[in-house]
Amino acid sequence: MQDPTSRSDSDQGRVEVKETTCYMCACRCGIRVTLRDGEIRHIEGNPDHPLNKGAICAKGSSGIMKQYSPARLTKPLLRKQGAERGSSEFEEISWEHAFELIEGRLSKIRAEDPKKFALFTGRDQMQALTGMFAKQFGTPNYSAHGGFCSVNMAAGMIYTIGGSFWEFGGPDLDRAKLFIMIGTAEDHHSNPLKIALADFKRRGGRFISINPIRTGYSAIADEWVPIKPGTDGALIMAITHELIKQGLYDRDFLIKYTNSAELVVDDASRDDHGLFRRFEMHIEEGCFDPENKLWWDIELDREISTHTPGVDPRLLGSYTLEDGTKVKPAFQLLKDRVEEYTPEWAAHITGIPADTIRRLAHEMGVVARDQKIELPIQWTDSWGNDHDSVIGNPVAFHSMRGLAAHSNGFQSIRALAILMTLLGTIDRPGGFRHKAPFPRPIPPCPKPPKGPEAVQPNTPLDGMPLGWPSKPDDLFVDEDGEAVRLDKAFSWEYPLSVHGLMHNAITNAWRGDPYKIDTMLLFMANMAWNSSMNTENVRKMLTDKDENGEYKIPFLIVADAFQSETVAFADLVLPDTTYLERHDAMSMLDRPISEFDGPVDSVRIPVVPPRGDCKPFQEVLIELGSRLGLPAFVKEDGSRKFRDYPDFVVNYETSPGSGIGFLAGWRGKGGEKFLKGDPNPRQWEMYKENGCVYHYELPKSYQYMRNWNRGYLEWARAHSMTRYAEPITIHLYSEVLQRFRLAAQGKWPGRIPPERLRKRVEENFDPLPFYSAPLEHKLVDTHTYPLNALTQRPMAMYHSWDSQNAWLRQIHTHNYLFVNPRTAEASGFGDGDWIWVESPINKVRCMARFSEAVEPGTVWTWNAIGKAAGSWGLSPKANESQKGFLLNHVISEELPPCEAGDHMSNSDPVTGQAAWFDVRVRIYPAEANEPEVTSPQFKPQKKLPGQDPKRGKWQAFVAGAFRKKAKIQE
Amino acid sequence: MTQLALVIDLNVCVGCHACVTSCKEWNTSGWAGPLTDQRPYDADPTGVFFNRVQTYEAGVFPNTETYHFPKSCLHCEDPPCVPVCPTGASYKREDNGVVLVDYDKCIGCKYCSWACPYGVREFDEQQKVMKKCTLCIDRITDMSLPESERKPACVLACPTRARIYGDIHDPDSDVSVAIREQGGYPLQPEWGTKPSNHYLPRRKTRIQIHEDELVRVDNPLKKEALPTLPEAGETLDDVAW
Amino acid sequence: MHPAFSVIFLTTLIGVGQGLFLALYTGQLYALANLLPAQSSNFYAVGSMVSLVLLFAGLIASFFHLGHPERAWRAATQWRTSWLSREVLALPAAMGLIFLYGTVHFFDLTKPLFVISGTLPVDFSLIIGGLGTLAVFGLFLCTAMIYASLRFIKAWYSPLTVANFLFLGIGSGFMLAAAFSAYQGTSLVSFYGTWAVIATLFGLLTRVATLYRNSQFRCKVDLKSAVGVHHSQLEQKAQGFMGGSFNTREFFHGRSQGLLNLIRYAFLLMVFVVPVILILLAYALESETLPLLAFGIQYLGLILERYHFFTEAQHPQNLYYQSMA
Ligand SMILES: Nc1nc2c(c(=O)[nH]1)N[C@H]1C(S)=C(S)[C@@H](COP(=O)(O)OP(=O)(O)OC[C@H]3O[C@@H](n4cnc5c(=O)[nH]c(N)nc54)[C@H](O)[C@@H]3O)O[C@H]1N2
Ligand SMILES: Nc1nc2c(c(=O)[nH]1)N[C@H]1C(S)=C(S)[C@@H](COP(=O)(O)OP(=O)(O)OC[C@H]3O[C@@H](n4cnc5c(=O)[nH]c(N)nc54)[C@H](O)[C@@H]3O)O[C@H]1N2
Ligand code: SF4
Ligand code: SF4
Ligand code: SF4
Ligand code: SF4
Ligand code: SF4
Ligand SMILES: [Mo]
């Protein structure tokens, strides 16, 4: 054998190195792809990329196996005439034929009733384009994964501090001293969080994880606080109780930057009860919070307008204004609220000892107060005060779906945002930091349409398909107060469903509630499997027919890159490219990869040619937009405006001459501008030269305190990132919520909720956070179903995507249900036994594995490892389908019938966030004579035309030689 | 003499498996490749990996610790796998201490794997030769790469930087410093194989809160305190002269 | 360890072959000393052929163990350090000498070359037989040391392993010699039979001692040392893959304890008890077929014994492959 030291890899073939952006998950790390003789040699992290700094994860490193996977679709497919939907009987068709079919169908729908076309997209990063397409088409029935993902996180925090975790902001672990992570397994910011967490630990920071399960990140926590699922609200409010009781809050911060000291009308008999007492002032119609409120001046012992220089207001007490109005500072209301939320009370609910709760509170409060960071950075606040330094209270939090995916998540997350606020950690060093374009006004300006009249034939939608209601009148309802959207988003059922409720789209369309639709286009969403709840039944709905023998959902188009479970149910399949084959823009108009220090956006540039007849879905939309004559895609004369997607990205402007387009970097004729500027014909080249990323680093003085940083806010307005440069005061007390509550109480002059929803709205639109058990826990018999069942993200798999990946599937070939040995003992089974997991709606058979790292009231499994037989290019005997299982079968998409309605979504009543983690189950051993396969099983899916023929028993990947050997047809 | 090795920091390893697949990816097309997979899309897929990440639990709920534990060849200083090899295919490099297999010499007798107590050698069932971690020898010695990239694939990939690479015989190297200062330990030291790879243990940070820290003069609650008068009633002022 | 049938056949077949050769040579020596009637050249020649065939069969079996048998010659190069390499040298050496031994007898090249002390006529067969004996003992040592030198595998790492290979090889070889004699109708049946019984009983002693030893000790390392986490309750949850790997296939037998117990009793009976009884019976009944039966049963027993030998071996690497999730 050749001596390895005399061998250079670059001598083994023709080598090229190309930079692009990873999309083995939504984290979007920068990667370098090395090709040998045109085949991918290896993919590594781009060391110059601001996000991942050279790191790459298990998925990112396995991109090769995605590229050459036998699950890849390569041909447009049409369901065979006469074949039943779901039977995987397809014929190959040409793209032209496919376009004609869609065009014919959609142009008719658009001319008659655009809302009969529904476009839902999964975990994609193209909402800038897909959302724009839907709006141009004129349908309100558009949303992406947000509603079933973590909208509670976005809404709960953005409605409170104007920014959020998830993809909008995060913990500043570079400077934090104490880090509390709540309900996070893997996160969106996968690599950056790992990098930061490890550095934080190495520096000696203290890391506490609050999670029913100890795996992954929690494994390296200094302290694990196991909590009963769905009870974090109680814990957080008990901590808040203790902090207020001990005076461990940042008073100065609360007064200056939050509405804590602002006076709220406290007189239940009045119609403005619970609203801030405002004095007359010209109020600009829009989305900012006018500064026309009052403080109670300690010195003068009377009301005074807020932010009056030199005034120290009261946070506590109860006062009567000159005009006789009874008021309380918002902070007093919060104190009143948490009065009953003692650590002892919470201990009972959360399973965490009261002493631990108190200690946690003390650790947070004392570190925030006593280990302050002071950075010598000069800045000016919105009220014109100059500051010589930026102060940080180094307690950082992070949280994801452990809080979000519960039906009480919105209020728990509000509670968390308030806790962070009490500690004075918002957009400060060592605390929470925003990422551009956040912070945004509370709530942000875009609004959904206001009523059915917004949907008109052959006309773009009047309003944004998704937006941020700030009062009942912003809801998207008809005159009866009922939903206009298919998913019932922005109706009184889920008023602040700012990301839609994709998880109810199929069920509602099947039931024809609120109406029947014609065509549903699913892009990058595996709705017949892991992104639906109640999956077994949803699969039935997809093939269910009405009295006339027509499918209840008449036409289903699926745009996917792989042979997913959903593809089997399509009438028309559009084969997408992979991330290595297409142009993509991770736009500032969607969720860019901004850093704490400034806006960042990024692109993908193809590194290999598309396989077979794959076509980037973006190109499909541009083609369709042009064919349908959607205004944004055609010129005055109706002719096609954009050559292709790259051309679109360069030249599209949100409105003619706005200077705002998909990409923020190198705008202006010669690339001299950023964020805003004329189209630059060389924009793609400039991104390419820069590793496919644009990073604007804000001046230091604009990097902190951005809610109230005059310099930053004016900069943001000048660059069209925000509409106003007004301070974004933290809504410790949410007047927005109170408006909806008043409507439910009949005290609001505008829209009021339908009778059946009044109580629900009144209860849940509490301007202050409160704890209440998750809806499902209240509606099902928790004695019969004593356990909580959870899923977690495995770090080496992305949702359902990766079972087709020969390397990754060896790590997670199938999944077990993890059970605390004591729980298992009580149920009478042993480690490795076959068991049933049963919820009120369905049951699954699977294998159990003991674990001491799970709270005894909880059982859990890895998410989306289980697959339907024959899908994903796998043999029907593959472990994924025979030993793997999908928990989704037992999770209901609807609540049991209740006062609010018979078909309420199993979601947060405020935001419509899917309550995945509320599900209650019981577990018991399978009978000895039952087969040792998971249940339910489905008829094996067939291979599709255009998919690779069966791969051999052996596979040995060597770049530059593989394709030929594996007989992959290009 | 140089002895190259990895030091793996269990204090920060989150078990992400990045080192597992980045290793596979680099090596399958490299000097030591391919890393064959069997039944890649069928039941019980299995294949050659040079590095695996395992999970262990210690203790009983709620006092449970979870450990992620990556394991590849430890490049023992006194590697028992080498002298037993009848063909000389297994060898330890003089220049840097890396233990390698020469596939052209290997007869696939598997004896070396029997002699390794760590379970890190993997037989390629298709190519019928023994394979193992090469410490990415074809990367770390490739002078056409910039120095920052002359590191094992797994080290470059690791998001938590839990994998440190260097010469454990150089007392000033990162690895030596880490072993020395953070209590780096070898696996199964009882055998005297002197593994070059070391592991760094879990460390804990605690905060001690003193009671006086909770009651302080600058407690903001004091600012809110309204001047409260004591209960009305007799005082000395009323009764004493 | 996972029992490898190629190795089971290799070690048992060459064991018998070696034992048989030793039996032949012992017979010759006894005859020389006039303690036994001299045998025809044919007896030695055919006997050597049988021995050779057995060794050859073992060699063939061993090739099935190799991934690249075409390169097997390379295995001769590392005799300085590797017992396996030494075996690879000792086996052909022994085979060659046995072949020569047979040839010498076949062609009756047994004219004394010289006479020692006036009583001991030395011929080619005596010299070659002597060298052959050395080679055979060397081969026993090499074969056994392949296992006995692996210090991590406690069950094998013992002189008892060498003793077992030796006694069981000799025992089975003499047993075959007895059967062979019976078959040839010579008068050596009881001689070989007696020595077979003696060797077998020695084998019983060392094998039982091995079983006892293996039931007593605990591995020097445990999971704590393997992972370096010194916690009294440490348990593996995931081994990093789920479809199996070389590490789970090569080092685990995957058999139930019940089956192993059964195999243990079976081999104890078949190797030690039944053949001895049969030989004694053959002695009493002067049967010609019983020795053959005794050998047959003992050989089958040896296959079970070797199977058990592998399953007894607990490899420390197994600590890392306990649980899958
Ligand atoms: N590798 C990989 N990375 C991914 C993904 C993937 O599939 N694979 N998916 C991406 C997507 S779309 C998303 S949305 C993110 C999600 O990122 P995460 O939110 O980190 O992902 P989940 O696995 O849903 O983690 C939920 C965590 O909350 C815990 N939990 C559940 N209920 C409760 C509770 O009531 N209280 C508390 N305190 N904890 C609770 C669970 O135990 C689990 O650890 O990950 C993204 N990143
Ligand atoms: N039980 C349970 N269920 C859950 C969750 C949970 O925690 N527990 N998490 C939920 C969350 S947060 C999310 S975000 C969803 C995710 O749910 P989805 O986004 O619906 O599901 P994915 O599995 O990500 O797959 C979407 C589809 O995208 C396809 N795809 C991959 N790459 C490409 C591409 O480049 N182009 C195209 N066109 N298609 C591609 C895949 O083949 C797959 O069919 O799952 C939800 N489901
Ligand atoms: S975290 Fe996501 S984007 Fe980053 S390397 Fe891994 S798969 Fe790719
Ligand atoms: S870990 Fe095993 S294979 Fe690696 S050098 Fe040591 S004994 Fe040899
Ligand atoms: S398998 Fe190969 S490397 Fe291992 S001992 Fe045998 S010949 Fe040597
Ligand atoms: S050093 Fe190289 S070969 Fe060894 S585990 Fe790391 S990546 Fe794999
Ligand atoms: S890449 Fe790093 S953090 Fe991830 S499993 Fe490997 S050593 Fe641990
Ligand atoms: Mo998600």
Describe this structure in words.
Chain A has 970 residues and is an alpha/beta fold. Helix content of chain A is 24%, strand content 15%. In chain A, a hairpin with an 8-residue loop joins strand 1 (15-21) and strand 2. The longest helix of chain A is centred in the N-terminal third of the chain and has 18 residues, at 95-112. Chain B has one domain: Alpha-Beta Plaits. In chain B, the strands form five sheets. Chain B has a three-stranded mixed beta sheet with strand order 10-1-11. Chain B has a two-stranded antiparallel sheet with strand order 2-3. In chain B, strands 4-5 form a two-stranded antiparallel sheet. The model of chain B has no long low-confidence stretch (mean pLDDT 95). By secondary structure, chain C is mainly α. In chain C, strand 1 and strand 2 (120-122) form a beta hairpin. The longest helix of chain C is centred in the last third of the chain and has 29 residues, at 257-285. Chains in contact: A-B, A-C, B-C. Chains B and C meet through strand 3, strand 4, strand 5 and helix 2 of B and helix 3, helix 7, strand 3 and helix 8 of C. The complex binds ligand MGD (2 copies), iron/sulfur cluster (5 copies) and molybdenum atom.
CATH arch. level architecture of chain B: 2-Layer Sandwich
Number of spatially distinct domains of chain B:
1
Strand segment tally of chain B? 11
- What general form of chain A does the structure show? globular
Helix/strand order of chain B, N-terminal first:
EHEEEEEEHEEHHEHEHH
Oligomer: heterotrimer
Strand content of chain A: 15-25%
Going across the biggest sheet of chain A, name each strand in turn.
5-4-25-24-23-6-7
Radius of gyration of chain A: 27 Å
Main pleated-sheet profile of chain A: 7 strands, mixed
Helix content of chain B: 10-25%
CATH class category name of chain B: Alpha Beta
Shape of chain B: elongated
Report the CATH topology name of chain B: Alpha-Beta Plaits
User: What structural class results from the helix and strand content of chain B?
Assistant: alpha+beta
What level of helicity do the residues of chain A show?
10-25%
